């Protein structure tokens, strides 16, 4: 991990540890926790979606069991809900910036060498020319089998880019998808969720490298599994 050349200083161990730690926190945990927070908020705002996900979990997992990894691929509506969350609230709204190694022309525009280029995935995912009712939270839009193949997270269609695309796509996409699905499935299967009495739901966003809720979500969990021992 230490790189030497005539023009490059050797990074100290502390600098390397700091860089790796920052990457793990931001790319590995912060993004997933924010996506879970937005998912719960959207489902509290549309309780029929939460109920449908919980019904699916109850059918596949059962109230006498906890969610395990092998259940995830058997939950199409949960996975459609996650896709819709990442459409409406992409965790990295401007993706990772890039720089062209030489001057090029893209879509009729000249992009000089070394320019910093951002892709506004947040705007693309809300474009009414691409998405019907783009500001509405509707997981059903991903339940169509044709669209389910088209709108995956692998960057195969430039209209849906939650993880980027091409050679520079998110390296942790497989882990991120599994982690997000497992966390959300476990939370929804094990608990019902409600807002504090008198509290109004705020879905406002706070922009940054990682998209966050402007106001942290505060909710109350209510146990829903039949066996209390499953919580220990």
UniProtKB/TrEMBL annotation:
Pfam families: p450 (PF00067). Keywords: Heme, Iron, Metal-binding, Monooxygenase, Oxidoreductase. It comes from the Eukaryota. Transmembrane segments: none annotated. InterPro entries: Cyt_P450 (IPR001128), Cyt_P450_CS (IPR017972), Cyt_P450_E_grp-I (IPR002401), Cyt_P450_sf (IPR036396). Heme binds at residue 170. Its cofactor is heme. GO terms for molecular function: heme binding; iron ion binding; monooxygenase activity; oxidoreductase activity, acting on paired donors, with incorporation or reduction of molecular oxygen. Belongs to the cytochrome P450 family. This is Cytochrome P450.
